């Protein structure tokens, strides 16, 4: 009795520690095909990449602004006869201080091999062949970002339409002071920002088909992507806004006649904003595509399904002071474990396989029950 057995073993030992910052694609293609009976074929590839990025920024900014407007400090004393009038004009002061885009880090190290596309094909090898394929992709990325910013803003606005004197006049005396409009605007934004905007992914496609009787095929993968992100931000921001505004302090004394003092209005506005201080943005590794296995002889490997990237995290935005964060790759997905590979071939192939199995079982049963056959004469 001739016993036939065809073995096709696919071992998917996939380990993934994922978190990276690169869009570079590492493409690995391995093909073991057309080897003779009893051949022993082994293909091994190792891709190792190490990238270290260090970014350090220090900024010290000091702004001193002192706008001044004076229409007052007038004197009209000891006038004889008639009317004495002191009228001052309006005073306007405006101050704008902006500190934007200080200490910006965008980390995109190149050629780290964090994104990989691996294709393995083991096809049409002879009987009793032993085929072994091993793929190892190890990537280590260390990203250190340090920012230190010291910002000091000093705004002092001076406006005066008052401090007018009209004393000892012989007649009517009038003092009218002008209005004051003052505005101070200090804007600190986008200070100490770290960004790692680009993620990566691993995809694997495996085809094992058309190999001869008693062939043994072993395919193993090891993806080890480690990303360590260290972010340390320190921001010391001091905003000092001072306004000295005066329409009063007017003097009208010892006058012979009617005395009138009318002081102007003061309109004051102070705006201080601190936006996007100490922000870290980190885009983690995308979900990796499980290995796709091809079907029997003549069936091409299935196309790996598209896997959408993870939603990017919301940046960590501080209002000031200091902030630090550390992000490192942890245990990732174990690809191929608990994942059902897509079935290939038509329903007719499945039915024919069942029929062949029943015929084989029936023949084996009849052969065992028929006893020893008489010798051929």
Summarize the structure in words.
With 377 residues, this protein is mainly beta. The protein has one domain (25-366). Helices cover 6% and strands 52% of the residues. It is built from one helix and 16 strands. The strands form four sheets. Strands 2, 3, 7, 11 and 16 form a five-stranded mixed sheet that branches. The longest helix has 23 residues, at 347-369. The protein is rod-shaped. The two termini are 20 Å apart.
Largest sheet geometry: 5 strands, mixed
Estimate the mean pLDDT confidence: 74
Instruction: Tell me how many strands there are.
Output: 16
Question: How many H/I helices?
Answer: 1
Helical proportion, percent range: under 10%
Spell the H/E element sequence: EEEEEEEEEEEEEEEEH
**Could you say which overall geometry the principal axes of the C-alpha atoms support?**
rod-shaped
Rounded to an integer, what's the Rg over CA atoms?
42 Å
Contiguous uncertain segments of 5+ residues: 1-24, 286-346
- Strand proportion, as a percent range, falls in over 45%
Domain unit count = 1
* Euclidean distance between termini CA atoms: 20 Å
| SS-based class | mainly beta
């Amino acid at each position: 009795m001739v016993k036939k057995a065809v073995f096709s073993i696919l071992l998917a030992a996939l380990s993934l520690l994922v978190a990276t910052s690169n869009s570079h694609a590492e493409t690995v293609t391995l093909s073991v095909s057309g080897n003779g009976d009893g051949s022993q074929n082994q293909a091994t590839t190792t891709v190792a990449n190490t990238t270290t990025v260090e970014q350090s920024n220090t900024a010290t900014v000091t702004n001193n602004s002192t706008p001044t407007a004076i229409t007052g400090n007038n004197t009209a004393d000891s006038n004889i006869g008639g009317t004495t009038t002191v009228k001052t004009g309006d005073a306007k002061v405006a101050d704008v201080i902006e500190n934007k885009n200080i200490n910006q880090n965008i980390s995109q190290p190149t050629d780290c091999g964090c994104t990989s596309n691996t294709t393995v094909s083991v096809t049409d090898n002879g009987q009793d062949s032993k085929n072994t394929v091993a793929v190892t992709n190890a990537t280590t990325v260390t990203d250190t970002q340090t920012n230190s910013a010291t910002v000091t803003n000093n705004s002092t606005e001076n406006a005066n339409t008052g401090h007018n004197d009209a004393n000892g006049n012989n007649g009517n005396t009038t003092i009218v002071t002008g209005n004051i409009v003052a505005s101070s605007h200090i804007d600190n934004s986008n200070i100490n920002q770290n960004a790692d905007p680009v993620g990566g992914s691993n995809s694997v496609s495996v085809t094992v088909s058309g190999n001869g009787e008693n062939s043994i095929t072993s395919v193993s993968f090891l993806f080890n992507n480690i990303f360590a992100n260290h972010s340390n931000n320190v921001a010391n921001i001091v905003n000092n806004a001072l306004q000295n505004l005066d329409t009063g302090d007017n003097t009208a004394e010892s006058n012979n006649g009617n005395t009138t003092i009318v002081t102007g209005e003061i309109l004051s506005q102070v705006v201080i904003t601190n936006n996007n201080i100490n922000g870290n943005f980190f885009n983690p590794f995308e979900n990796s595509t499980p290995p796709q296995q091809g079907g029997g002889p003549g069936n091409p490997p299935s196309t790996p399904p598209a896997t959408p990237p993870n939603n990017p995290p919301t940046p960590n935005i501080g209002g000031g002071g200091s902030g630090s964060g550390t992000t490192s790759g942890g245990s990732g997905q174990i690809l191929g474990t608990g994942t059902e590979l897509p079935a290939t071939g038509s329903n007719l192939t499945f039915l024919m396989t069942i029929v062949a199995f029943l015929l084989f079982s029936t023949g084996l049963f009849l052969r065992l029950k028929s006893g020893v056959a008489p010798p051929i004469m």
